[in-house]
Design a protein that fits this description.
single chain; mainly alpha; 9% strand
């Protein structure tokens, strides 16, 4: 059983799950196939109908970061600036 943290303050559960990126399957000769290791339909059964949209956003933001750009989303997800996230004042 779980209890809300200070329900009198109007807190709500704030847990969000990020669906896993699914790299391509590989053929026996090492070629990448045009088939994902985890089928989108299966991920949608776990995370809901917006899973494809979320995965597209993650891929775009990942590419931005890979090209040296700024991505607040990726910084948050990977804790890139973890020292700032837990700064004590």
């Amino acid at each position: 059983m779980a209890l809300p943290l200070h329900a009198e303050w109007g807190t709500q559960p704030n847990v969000f799950y990020v669906p896993p990126m699914s790299p391509s399957k590989y053929a026996a000769d090492g070629r990448a196939l045009d088939e994902q290791r985890i089928p989108l339909e299966y991920l949608e059964s776990l995370f809901g109908p917006r899973t494809g949209e979320v995965l597209d956003t993650l891929e775009r933001e990942r590419q931005v970061k890979a090209e040296g750009g700024e991505s607040e989303l990726m910084d948050t997800l990977i804790g890139f600036k973890h020292a700032e996230m837990f700064k004590l004042s």
